[in-house]
Amino acid sequence: MAKFIPEPYRIKMVEPIKMTTREHREAAIKQADYNLFRLKGEDVYVDTLTDSGTNAMSDAQWSALMMGDEAYAGAKSYFKLVEAAQDIFGYGYIQPVHQGRAAEKVLFPSFLEKGKYAIANLFFDTTRAHVELAGARCLEACNPEASDSSLRAPFKGNMDVARMEEIIREKGPENIGLVVMTITNNSAGGQPVSLQNMREVAALCQKYHIHLNIDAARYAENAMFVKMREPECKDMSIKEIIRAFFDLADTFTMSAKKDTIVNMGGLIGVKDENAPYILKIKANCISFEGFYTYGGLNGRDLEALAVGLYEGLDENWLRYRIGTMEYFGERLDEYGIPYQSPAGGHGIFLDAAKFYPQLPYYEFPGQVLAIELYKECGLRACDIGSYMIGNDPDTGKQLKSINEFTRLAIPRRVYTQSHYDMVIEAINEVWKRRESIQHGYKITWEPPILRHFQASLTPIEE
């Protein structure tokens, strides 16, 4: 029997949640044009749409808010944040921004333009969008193990290094503007990247003189997986593992709304404090975010972020975090429900293609499952599949994702075991009636980029 790991914290404040009926939920999702992002938050019972900015801050973080220095330039809160980030990552220059996509928008134009390519172990939606907005194109070299959700492998998030080198030679090293290593690999199911794989990728980048950037949103969870699964790292501290990873890269972009457990914030890190492109980072930050010592954040945000950087490294917390996902996965195993296994670091990725093998990818099985789960119990999840990946930017043709997942991204320090158990029982109910779904959804309107945030859908009728 699956065992739930006790929480390494106690609850100090609660927020009431609205209880709804199935009839109410069916009307709400229809009114939202079958787009989970367009639901009202109050109509959701358990919200796993994202783990980004939806976390519960600690008493230390809330206390830190009162220390925020709101000076427009050179605030002491900025220097406190820089000191914490430099201590953890060892990078010479730290740039705060308001969230991860802002970091990409500010940094990527220094390396990407029309005719250039970026390679990743998989691109998440906003990262792909900012590569394309810079004029470049995305190429992927993900570990092929990630495409088999039933395969239990320790580092399914790894880069396929052989495929990466094939791409470099095919396109020409001079045309590869950037390599992005996402740790953990979100689109692969929150799967970790090994330190050995990071070394191999870094060596290849050095061989061909290509810039290496870490997408560091879930860097602490990745470090915990490495400590648990990579023998050479079992006696290393989380901080030591993080430093070993970041020493291998040139820059990092981070949504601090994940592992740093804040509601708003992001970072750019540059290892070489004398790198000439730092001037462009500052200029872009001033244009898009605000003056570079606040980067679109309040002094209060900077203070909470400085505290959260350290809280996210706590091993007791990380064991609970990863243990919660393992508990969730073990309960699903009891019912024979398919998901990306082993369970990832920040959520459960249900294999919607195995729920609905009768549905083609262009009818969006991941979205179908997300809608069915909302109707069943008020759970809000999201598609991580062909619906999210969108259309080819050059041909306009629908792209096919390597997986059709429905992601349950678990906010940190928010829900309890009883919430998870309720959701698991609801998943099982949807699983039992999976064969009754004969058709998916079609898009009736979509924006040209990042469509899944706004698109309108309708059920496909017979």
What does this structure look like?
This protein has 462 residues and is of the alpha/beta class. It is 38% helix and 13% strand. It contains 16 helices and 14 strands. The chain has helices spanning 22-31, 59-65, 76-89, 100-107, 125-133, 161-171, 195-208, 219-229, 238-246, 278-288, 299-311, 315-335, 352-355, 365-377, 386-389, 417-432; strands spanning 46-47, 93-97, 117-120, 137-140, 176-182, 212-215, 251-255, 266-270, 347-351, 379-380, 382-384, 405-409, 441-445, 456-459. A seven-stranded mixed β-sheet has the order 2-8-7-6-5-3-4, with helices on both faces. A three-stranded antiparallel β-sheet has the order 9-12-11. A two-stranded parallel ribbon has the order 1-10. Helix 5 links the parallel strand 3 (117-120) and strand 4 (137-140). Helix 12 runs parallel beside helix 16 and helix 14 crosses helix 16. The protein is globular, with a radius of gyration of 21 Å. The model has no long low-confidence stretch (mean pLDDT 97).
Relevant terms:
462 residues; 7-stranded mixed sheet; 3-stranded antiparallel sheet; 16 helices; 38% helix; globular
Strand content: 5-15%
Percentage of residues assigned to helices:
25-40%
Largest sheet: 7 strands, mixed
Low-confidence stretches: none
Order of helices and strands: HEHHEHEHEHEHEHHEEHHHEHHEEHEHEE
User: Treating each run of at least 4 consecutive H or I residues as one helix, how many helices?
Assistant: 16
Structural class: alpha/beta
- Distance between the ends: 42 Å
On the 0-100 scale, what is the average pLDDT?
97
Alpha carbon gyration radius: 21 Å
- The global form is globular
- The total beta strand count reads 14
Strand order of the largest sheet: 2-8-7-6-5-3-4
